[in-house]
Amino acid sequence: MHFNLDRALPTPLVQQLTEQLQAWITRQRLRPGARLPSIRTLAKAQAVSASCVIEAYDRLVASGWLEARHGAGFFVAERKPGLRPDPGEPWGEAIDGSWRQFREGHEQLLKLGCGWLPVAWRAEAELAQAIRQVSRGAPEALFDYCPPQGLASLRLQLHKGLARLDIVAEPERIVTTQGASHALDLLVRTLLAPGDTVLVERPGYYNLYNLLRLHGVRMLEVPRTASGPDLEVLEQLLAEHRPRCLFINSLYQNPTGTSLTPKVAYRLLELARGHDLRIVEDDLYADFQDGPAARLATLDSEQRVIYLGSFSKTLSSSLRVGYVVADPPLVARLAELKMVAGIGTSRFAEQVVGQMLANGSYRKSVQRLRLRLGQHRARTLGLLEACGWEVFCEPVGGMFVWGRVPGRDFAELERLALEHAVLLTPGSAFDPQGRASEWLRINVAYGQDSRAEAFFRHAGRPLAV
Amino acid sequence: MHFNLDRALPTPLVQQLTEQLQAWITRQRLRPGARLPSIRTLAKAQAVSASCVIEAYDRLVASGWLEARHGAGFFVAERKPGLRPDPGEPWGEAIDGSWRQFREGHEQLLKLGCGWLPVAWRAEAELAQAIRQVSRGAPEALFDYCPPQGLASLRLQLHKGLARLDIVAEPERIVTTQGASHALDLLVRTLLAPGDTVLVERPGYYNLYNLLRLHGVRMLEVPRTASGPDLEVLEQLLAEHRPRCLFINSLYQNPTGTSLTPKVAYRLLELARGHDLRIVEDDLYADFQDGPAARLATLDSEQRVIYLGSFSKTLSSSLRVGYVVADPPLVARLAELKMVAGIGTSRFAEQVVGQMLANGSYRKSVQRLRLRLGQHRARTLGLLEACGWEVFCEPVGGMFVWGRVPGRDFAELERLALEHAVLLTPGSAFDPQGRASEWLRINVAYGQDSRAEAFFRHAGRPLAV
């Protein structure tokens, strides 16, 4: 198996590889079920990047030539009549990076750069039980639309849970969403118009940047420090630009893992008051909280903070359940948009989550996760240190460590990672302008895997003894 | 119990009633669990509209004063500490009408005007079984995000099902959505800019109007006739305005129940070709098809038709599963927006629907629904005729009949309906401009209920014998 891939051609390498793989499968008369070479093997053999192979395989899956089998790799698919041989360009090159972690068929790679916990950590027995209970309960949960603001029983449980964080959130101040990104979309569409200016953290959540860009909103960047946003820069931007709002993770920020100190949190609210700034506090790692924490929504006394939560990180990314806490007029507008743009959320999913909140199984499962995350975080930090990695800040909770090996750029890191079957997310994804970065988001839940260890060692620069 | 409601005050009646109900509950020291008067009783006693009572009760539920118990009415709730006595105005008056059918607590009213089938008709055993099977299967379905285009196994089933309707839709031409309204939202955001002009049917789907209005899109109205859109008007609008696209239900249109004739369908595609018009064919009643049908996506040979489907009407509105069929570049843009605006759909829900498609239980359950709908449609049409109602057109399939009693306006119909515990949706909701209408959307699935019969008789004007 050798392909003639020519970098000088105007046809992108991915497309050349895709087409030559198709031709090869046909020429070799490969039968359905025949296994394709692993991503690493093929990348090495053809001297292309692993990303290129991943993308070619993805396209062949999308067009029905291959199928991805969980944990086992890629196989020739049963050919369906009516499938066209060439699916065209299903994905723009620009967006490949961000969603690769979400595609099917990469289960054999370790998702060290991803933003969620391994399936093996999750509360499988508890969630499956709650699902079965709901399936045996009142049939409305299986069939009916959800009310505009979300299921009242879930909102009551959320209200109780938030009271434990000292956040006043009566059920009528809550609207449910399909996770935090859906919440952000509803907020951006409701609060902002194209041309508006907002503050975002740098580095920060790439999909928030995508969303704001899509909506034509201008982003002002506030550097994230170990104790929260850089207040000097923030104050200057507030004075110069009068932005509409600030988007922030207070706890265990994505991607740096840093948390607000109480002093920064307090001063941030003072600045917000002085400049009439609204704050969107995306607190989706709230239930990973270990020890004390400074939350803006807890300190806020004037409904300046719009608070977001989600169950995607702590319970299930599959169910799509999150929520927004805001003043009732804004909640009404968000609920209206939620109906207009999709006739609401899933009653079934909300019933399942509400039940796990009510019967305590959610609380117990996040206790377990916290403990396990803490152990993995400590070990991963130790390992990174031993391997000569630089860490932006030692996080006190959550999933993420922001690390680098000074002098190693992403292309080099990715090459080394794929040699060890490790899938990274580029640091540039966490920059509002997509600027190249040496920094990597490391998900500590995957940091104990031998593939991650080998990658850390191989890429690191241990101090000479 | 008597309240001083004063129409001369600037405070809306709903708010007066809400506040006086609160005061009354407090004054009477009503205990948690005490039952409130029925909507009809209270409306009659206070000489206000039933809508006013419904809205007041809804607000009191939202603020925690009352709770709605399924099928039993409204009761004083256990007071939660921290609940504010006055929730303000959670819902704008303007939007009350549209979403009333979606709120909790109106189960004692017959939803004759609603757009879905009764829970009792649904495939409860089959869906519950599929849910339990998925809960026992691979844990990825419970926990993981869904790939951007949707689960490959579901798209394969959709591809097979559409082939039976003679629609060519390879899996790579399909992107899943959270139902048809979410699909419409993705399409509007991807294809249209504020200020663009599109064609919509009149009467038509109110939430499509909401969505287009929200997006600042100008609507040109094409009257719906018994055989499809009025082609003369359409041709004139095409020539004068060069609209970007047409939104249409080909089969069993919402709300008129009418279907395209083959001749109209063919001519429509000719016109679309001549004026380079795209067509968004929302075919969410496809699986109710009884007998032959003319579908644009079947006839379309140049990928001019964007096709939408949903399982909300035929299987479950709770799961939120639908899809779009389009050319691969548009599918890629829709999938990208779907990720940016909410990190995709529910893998769990897609796995459940995919399973029911694969094992045949979905097909069997819609066969039952079709049969039952056909019987109810025939009987409801007979009843309406006997009661002196005028019907826009006798539908050959689907849920809806568009009927009126000439000379009776909506206010009068609603009053009569609520006397019989029947909840209507105003005809004005199906007009792009919200113009008053004598016409009512009648959901035949509820037409055999004795409350509906009593309403038809009471409101009708039988011919003198």
TrEMBL record, chains A, B:
<dbReference type="InterPro" id="IPR004839">
    <property type="entry name" value="Aminotransferase_I/II_large"/>
</dbReference>
<dbReference type="InterPro" id="IPR015422">
    <property type="entry name" value="PyrdxlP-dep_Trfase_small"/>
</dbReference>
<dbReference type="GO" id="GO:0003677">
    <property type="term" value="F:DNA binding"/>
</dbReference>
<keyword id="KW-0238">DNA-binding</keyword>
<dbReference type="InterPro" id="IPR015424">
    <property type="entry name" value="PyrdxlP-dep_Trfase"/>
</dbReference>
<dbReference type="GO" id="GO:0008483">
    <property type="term" value="F:transaminase activity"/>
</dbReference>
<dbReference type="InterPro" id="IPR051446">
    <property type="entry name" value="HTH_trans_reg/aminotransferase"/>
</dbReference>
<dbReference type="Pfam" id="PF00392">
    <property type="entry name" value="GntR"/>
</dbReference>
<dbReference type="Pfam" id="PF00155">
    <property type="entry name" value="Aminotran_1_2"/>
</dbReference>
<feature type="domain" description="HTH gntR-type">
    <location>
        <begin position="11"/>
        <end position="79"/>
    </location>
</feature>
<dbReference type="InterPro" id="IPR015421">
    <property type="entry name" value="PyrdxlP-dep_Trfase_major"/>
</dbReference>
<protein>
    <submittedName>
        <fullName>DNA-binding transcriptional regulator, MocR family, contains an aminotransferase domain</fullName>
    </submittedName>
</protein>
<dbReference type="InterPro" id="IPR000524">
    <property type="entry name" value="Tscrpt_reg_HTH_GntR"/>
</dbReference>
<comment type="similarity">
    <text>In the C-terminal section; belongs to the class-I pyridoxal-phosphate-dependent aminotransferase family.</text>
</comment>
<dbReference type="GO" id="GO:0030170">
    <property type="term" value="F:pyridoxal phosphate binding"/>
</dbReference>
<keyword id="KW-0663">Pyridoxal phosphate</keyword>
<dbReference type="InterPro" id="IPR036390">
    <property type="entry name" value="WH_DNA-bd_sf"/>
</dbReference>
<keyword id="KW-0032">Aminotransferase</keyword>
<dbReference type="GO" id="GO:0003700">
    <property type="term" value="F:DNA-binding transcription factor activity"/>
</dbReference>
<keyword id="KW-0805">Transcription regulation</keyword>
<keyword id="KW-0808">Transferase</keyword>
<dbReference type="InterPro" id="IPR036388">
    <property type="entry name" value="WH-like_DNA-bd_sf"/>
</dbReference>
<keyword id="KW-0804">Transcription</keyword>
